Amino acid sequence: MADPSALDRLPVRDGLRGLRPYGAPQLDVAVRLNVNENPFAPPADVVESIAAAAARSAATANRYPDREAWDLRVALAEYLGRREGVRFGPERLWAANGSNEVMLHLLQAFGGPGRRALGFSPTYSMYPEYCRDTFTAYETAPREADFTIDHTVALAALGAHQPHIVLVASPNNPTGTALELGIIEALHEASDALIVVDEAYAEFRRPGTPSALSLIDRLPRLVVTRTMSKAFACAGLRVGYCVAAGGVVDAARLVRLPYHLSALTQNAAIAALGHADALLAGVDRLRHERDAMVVALGSRGFQVAESDANFVLFGRFVDRHAVWQGLLDHGVLIRETGPEGWLRVSIGTPDENAAFLAALTDVVPDPSTVAPEAGP
Ligand SMILES: *Cc1c(COP(=O)(O)O)cnc(C)c1O
Fold first, then answer.
1. Which of 19, 148, 157, 251 gives a 20 to 30 Å CA spacing to 364?
2. pTM greater than 0.90
């Protein structure tokens, strides 16, 4: 372990002094349900296609990759057309190393010194980091007790903070809450801000839950971000993307580093997209397991948040760290995140989910004895 104070002896900027890098502990335990990965590894024929794509990239490794990642953007636009029934060309789609980098590009282009971003907490813990790294002020408004966003609260926050960019995850991490489209339309209508809807978990949403992609042709400042990291079972490839009006893509192209997406990444992702159905085959099972997990936790006496994602937020605990540690001692790693007193578990294979529930029953036989007195 490096000396943690070594950084502070260097001329590092004030905003970074004393900070620790973001990220859940990457521990080598049997059951890892902590970072919302898809538990189903790619099937053998997909692995073969990706490996062949990597070999082709290696043969031309002396050359820089396509700066525009055009073929990948064509493949992603085709995928969205097939999956979501929305039609638009690759000029309206931008891709980068994970949707995290897509959102960083958006902050670099639309945020900056003297500018403000608005989020609705509790939400994704990376939003304040993009803001810190682009010298953008990060403001928040609270979600309701059920983790939805209230129209009046949202409009008041727009008025109070006058944001240049609004970051809203739907389904939200860590709560699993999907938004109704009315709130997105209202945010767009009542501001001049770029409205970024982070749909990292959209493929897991329950039937009847809409995607903000259906608004993309009507709202010129709407951006919808997606990723291959979660439902698509390709977290290791690092590919995320967004759909927006063409001007948003032009802005991202100004701030991206040259050749930001390696040839390996582009070609591997195109190969994976050729097997979209196989890679997404686990999604229906995971949604089914997710719904069963909500019921199982509720019937054991835990408080559970409704979820449209591949994870479930549950609680509440006076000492959530003790519960997290107790599960880890049973070989089950979940995530200590979200509002005070709650924990988040990713949906794994049926065996992993069963192992988690067995361990939890052992660690917390009676939730009422470890719950806070009262509260929301
Ligand atoms: C996991 C996640 C992402 C996706 O990150 P990638 O960089 O695409 O791997 C984006 N937003 C939220 C809220 C997430 O939880």
1. 148
2. yes
